[in-house]
Amino acid sequence: MTPPGEPPAELHQLLQSLRHYAEASDRAVDAAGHRHGVHRTDLRALTILMQRREAGLDTSPTDLGRLLGLTSASTTALVDRLVSNGHARRSPSTTDRRRVSVTHTQTAAEDGSRIFVPLSRHLAAHLSGFTPDQILAACQVLAAATDALNTFEPPADGPA
Fold first, then answer.
1. Contact 79, 64 (CB under 8 A)
2. What is d(CA 66, CA 127) in angstroms, rounded to the nearest whole number?
3. Per-residue pLDDT at 158
4. C-beta neighbour count of 64 within 10 angstroms
5. Buried-most residue among 108, 126, 127, 129 (CB within 10 A)?
6. Which residues 6+ apart lie within 8 Å of 32 measured at CB?
7. Is residue 127 part of a domain?
8. 104 in any annotated domain
9. What is the pLDDT of residues 88-130, one digit of tens each?
10. CA pseudo-torsion sign 113, 42, 151, 24
11. Tell me, what CATH number does 16's domain have?
């Protein structure tokens, strides 16, 4: 029997599996980025730039820093690094001429493909034995877990 306040055993196992997956994913992405000379923060920034462009959103350095949780100085260093590596460019904002927008380049998309396509293929090969229904159920679980993380607000007074 599950003690009060504790998740059922199956849910506890799922939470552990999600944690293990997140840790393995972080290691794989770090290793792949390192092999291609791209910092983890740069990869995160490029992902944000690509997602925001796809959503039709302008991204200023301030936006990027806020989304990454960086200081202004760290954001400037990041954007300078992305621009010097040919992964991003600065240009006048299309919505406010006083602002600067940061966008990813085609080089960034190509380098991202070189980094992530092999990883995606490796994952797909390991998941190919599951039925479509199992895959869809996993998608629902992952979507719920992602939503929980995106809406989580830590308590102000520390851990409970």
1. yes
2. 35
3. 62
4. 22
5. 108
6. 115, 116, 118, 119
7. yes
8. yes
9. 999 998 778 889 999 999 999 999 999 899 999 999 999 999 9
10. positive
11. 1.10.10.10
CA dihedral defined by 134, 15, 116, 87, rounded to 10 degrees? 140
Give the per-residue SS3 of the chain. CCCCCCCCHHHHHHHHHHHHHHHHHHHHHHHHHHHCCCCHHHHHHHHHHHHHHHCCCCCCHHHHHHHHCCCHHHHHHHHHHHHHCCCEEEEECCCCCCCEEEEECHHHHHHHHHHHHHHHHHHHHHHCCCCHHHHHHHHHHHHHHHHHHHHCCCCCCCCC
**pLDDT of 30-65, one tens digit each?**
998 898 888 899 999 999 999 999 999 999 999 999
Q: The tokens of 88 are what?
A: 């991003």
Give the span between the Cα atoms of 9 and 97, in whole angstroms.
56
| Both structure tokens of 1 | 């029997």
**How many structural domains comprise the chain?**
1
Is 114 among the domain residues? yes
- Which residue has 């490796």 as its token pair? 122
